[in-house]
Amino acid sequence: PPAGWGTWQVEDSRGSFTWDRAVGHLAPGAARAAQVRNGCFIQTLAPVKPGERYVVAGRYRLQGRGTAWLRVRWQKPEGGWVAEQRDKLIYGAGEPGEWGELFGVAEVPEGAGKLVLLLCVDGQMSPEDVAWFDDVRCHKLD
Hints:
Blueprint: E1 6-9, E2 16-20, E3 30-34, E4 38-45, E5 53-63, E6 67-75, E7 88-90, E8 100-107, E9 114-122, E10 130-141
Antiparallel strand pairs: 1-4, 2-3, 3-10, 4-9, 5-8, 5-10, 6-7, 6-9
């Protein structure tokens, strides 16, 4: 996976998560997920405080079957999921084969101390089913 990112996929998914040096939104280089039945790239950002708001954004591109979206989740300061009902799901609008935009605002819930970004992929059935993610950003609003 790209530097600073981990990955996760359901046990029976046989997908691959890589860094594609040839493809990118404005310049070559993007996170690439192929043949992922259900999984994600994942990165934890800390510390955050309840009530803070963050803009999260990125670009995505799909080839073949499957869907892609950005999910913001929360962890307690010491780790472990919290306030899962407050996950922020961000879906984009874009034409297949073209770069689409993912953009949203997430507010840190009570009990959270870490913001977790998940670049999610679902429904890919073959190696030709691919999702790319690029230009992922997270900024605190003042």
